[in-house]
Design goal:
Blueprint: H1 15-26, H2 31-38, H3 42-60, H4 62-65, H5 67-102
Helix pairs in contact: 1-3
Pfam family, one: HTH_Tnp_1
Protein name: Transposase
Keywords: Coiled coil
């Protein structure tokens, strides 16, 4: 069992700190440099940056207008149509089987 003195606790950062570090990252400073100076993992910096860009896209309403949003909507529409056509085909197969047996 672990000694309670060696158990690591998860650090939490306030929103202002995250925003400042994200600004530093987008302004051109490298993630490695920022992570070494603040003692933060690089993947955490990239996660904060990704979350910040997602929030701004949804606030501005650009996500729905983006090409990726249009493609995902088109993909969902085509999947639904494909399922409907599969169902129709199965119904027609059963109907054809019924008509062929009656002859």
């Amino acid at each position: 069992m672990k000694d309670p003195k060696t158990v690591k606790t998860r650090r939490s950062y306030d929103l202002d700190f995250k925003q400042e570090v994200t600004r530093m990252l987008t302004s051109g400073r490298s993630a490695k440099e920022i992570s070494e100076s603040f003692g933060i993992a690089e993947n955490l910096l990239y996660r904060w940056k990704r979350m910040a860009t997602m929030k701004t896209k949804t606030k501005d309403g650009q996500k729905e207008d983006s090409a990726a949003g249009k493609l995902s909507a088109e993909n969902a529409r085509l999947r639904a149509e494909n399922e409907r056509l599969k169902t129709d085909r199965e119904i027609l197969k059963k109907a054809l089987g019924l008509f062929s047996k009656s002859d």
